[in-house]
């Protein structure tokens, strides 16, 4: 079996699509010597990229999700708050990976999309002990974190997905546990929540922290994601 055929078998076994991490994890089942070289991951990516450019077996349906050419991409219902929540988390994770950060999610077991779970996208299963245990505990509750890829790694960006306006204050308060670090906080929510977000940040209790936060609606995140999938190199938000 060739390496291309092995990747194809991984996709078939995973329901027709798989993240790059799933391919890494499972390719040895079909190609036992896949990891025999020091640059084996780059080798797999090279095979994928060549096949995408010159072949007809695969297609790319996400920043790091691949599928068989006849695979029907999943459409997540907009009214399904649970699935939209994990969809936004997954997009934030993939964006972080694309911009060369280490990524973490508080919801690794949540289904992202297309047979892929958030644990298949995040690059870290645990966050580094970058500060006091109490603050690390709260950091683990944040939906998505991007960490710098340095020896002493710190959270650079934090994302809270607010699908229900009743969870806004809790999301802001979780972020503020990291207020003493140079972390930028993003509240990601439906556009209809922006007015309530602005009113909340104008409250006296949150005024000192207002500049640490930014609001991004779902469409902005999806647009950024889709444009990157199409090959447009864009600066972060």
Short summary:
With 237 residues, the chain is α+β, with helices and mostly antiparallel strands. It is 37% helix and 17% strand.
Q: How would you sum up this structure, described in words?
A:
This protein has 237 residues and is an alpha+beta fold. The chain is built from 8 helices and 10 strands. The strands form 3 sheets. The chain has a 5-stranded mixed beta sheet with strand order 4-7-8-9-10. The protein has a 3-stranded antiparallel beta sheet with strand order 1-3-2. A two-stranded antiparallel sheet has the order 5-6. α4 crosses α8. The longest helix is centred in the middle third of the chain and has 18 residues, at 81-98. It is globular and about 65 Å long. The termini are far apart. The mean pLDDT is 94.
Biggest β-sheet: strands ordered side by side in the sheet: 4-7-8-9-10
Mean pLDDT: 94
Q: What portion of residues belong to β-strands?
A: 15-25%
Alpha carbon gyration radius: 19 Å
Low-confidence stretches: none
Q: How many β-strand runs?
A: 10
Along the chain, the helix and strand elements come as: HEHHEEHEEEHEEHEHEH
The biggest sheet, with number of strands, parallel, antiparallel or mixed sense and barrel status, is:
5 strands, mixed
Query: Outline, from the CA principal axes?
Result: globular
- Helical element count? 8
End-to-end Cα distance = 43 Å
């Amino acid at each position: 079996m060739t390496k291309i055929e092995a990747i194809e078998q991984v996709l078939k076994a995973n329901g027709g699509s798989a993240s790059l991490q799933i391919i890494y994890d499972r390719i040895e089942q079909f190609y036992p010597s896949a990891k025999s070289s020091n640059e084996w991951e780059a080798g797999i990516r090279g095979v994928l990229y060549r096949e995408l450019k010159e072949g007809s077996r695969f297609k790319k349906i996400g920043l790091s999700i691949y599928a068989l050419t006849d695979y029907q991409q999943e459409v997540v219902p907009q009214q399904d708050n649970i699935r939209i929540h994990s969809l936004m988390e997954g997009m934030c994770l993939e964006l972080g990976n694309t911009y060369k950060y280490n990524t973490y999610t508080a919801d690794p077991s949540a289904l992202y999309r297309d047979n892929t779970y958030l644990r298949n996208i995040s690059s870290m299963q645990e966050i580094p002990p970058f500060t006091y245990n109490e603050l690390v505990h709260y950091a683990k509750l944040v939906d998505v974190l991007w960490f710098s890829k340095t020896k002493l790694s710190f959270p650079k960006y934090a994302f809270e997905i607010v699908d229900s306006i009743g969870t806004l204050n809790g999301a802001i308060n979780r972020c503020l546990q990291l207020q003493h670090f140079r972390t930028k906080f993003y509240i990601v929510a439906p556009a209809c929540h922006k007015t309530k977000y602005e009113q909340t940040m104008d409250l006296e209790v949150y005024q000192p922290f207002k500049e640490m936060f930014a609001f991004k609606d779902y469409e902005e995140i999806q647009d950024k994601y889709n444009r990157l999938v199409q090959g447009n190199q864009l600066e972060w938000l």
